[in-house]
Structures are given as structure tokens and as C-alpha cells.
Amino acid sequence: MNLNERFRGYLPVVVDLETGGFDNAVNPLLELACTFLNWESDTLSVASQTRWHVEPFAGSEVNPASLRVTGINLDDPHRQALDERAAIKEFFKLVRTAMKTHGCHRAIMVAHNASFDQGFLKAACERNNLKRNPFHPFTSLDTASLAAVAYGHTVLSEACQRAGLSFDQSLAHDAAYDAERTAQLFCQMVNGWPFDPVVMNGQPTSPAN
């Protein structure tokens, strides 16, 4: 079985966003990280990761409480932040390359409390007139929901600990760290789930187009 067959033709991409608040209309995207996955010998594993620091869009409002939680210093000269449009275009380019590599027709977002990340990414695309979003417009794989079923908890740090994965609280709310931990948690849940391809007429079904 290939990766595209395991997820019905979709490429799972683990995403974490750190933002300047909870309102995607006025609060900016500040960090974006994605983790790509690999499928080999019917086992899902972490393959690679990329992150971007993002400049707040013009006219946005940054909630100081959000900066205290994330530890982001917008004045840090080492941030080397890109503007929102450039960061998202680079991100989407990597996703499309991975889709082509794995023979997937669309990407699907894997995220912890995925509706939050989906909402911010969609708002950023609309703000920057980015039409070619490779992700499914509404379907996602939410690890908070999956962890509630598998481990009885929705908080990322607690779910990781219950799954036997380490979690460093001092690194929490860093987009790259949270994306990597979310990816490891997702892989563990997928690999531990009893799964057999649906068989029709004696043959496994192929991914939907």
C-alpha cells in the first residue's frame, strides 16, 4: 500500500500556526510550520519539516497576551520573517511538490484543533487573493479529536504523554515544535489503528479521484 492509497488519494500534511490572537480577520499569522510524512512498509513516519516566520499583515492587531504565550518577539532581527503572501506561496509550493511525489490529488490538513488553523489559513488566502489552495476546503484530520478517542484527552501535551511521547512544555507554542509533536502523535495513532483496505471484487479499492 502507498501513502495515497492509505488516505484515499489525499496527502496528509501536519500544520501548526502561531498567531497574534484568536480572530483570523484582525489578528495576524506569525509563525507557520509544516511536517511532511512518509509511508513505508505500511508504517507512517515523520519525513521532513519546514517553518516560516511571518510578518503581521498591514492593519492587523497583535494581542500582547498571545505574544506572552508564544514567546514570539516581533522585533527580533533574527526572525527573518516573510510577508504573509510570500510565506504561504512557499508553503503551498512544497505541498504541491509532495503531492506530486506521492501521487496524491489533494492535500488534507492534519492539525491539533484543526478548525483554528484551517480558519486562519483560509483567511490569509482570501486576504492575499491566493486561489490555488492545495488543501481540502473543509475536511481535516484533527488530532485533538483523534486523541480524545485514542487516549481520552484533547490537550496536545497530555495526549503525547499518554501516548508515551515526550513533550517539553518550555517549547510549547513554538510552531515547529508543536507541528513535530503533532506529527509524531498522528503517526502513532495511525500505526496503532487496525486497518485493512476495503476490498471490492477481490481487489483493494484505488484512491478516489
TrEMBL record:
GO biological process, one term: DNA replication proofreading
GO molecular function: 3'-5' exonuclease activity; nucleic acid binding; RNA nuclease activity
Keywords of this entry: Hydrolase, tRNA processing
InterPro entries (UniProt xref): Ribonucl_H, RNase_T, RNaseH-like_sf, RNaseH_sf
SMART domains for the chain: EXOIII
Highest taxon of source: Eukaryota
Keyword Hydrolase: yes
Protein name: Rnt protein
NCBIfam families per the UniProt record, alphabetical: RNaseT (TIGR01298)
Entry GO terms, CC: cytosol
Stored Pfam families: RNase_T
Residues covered by the Exonuclease domain: 11-195
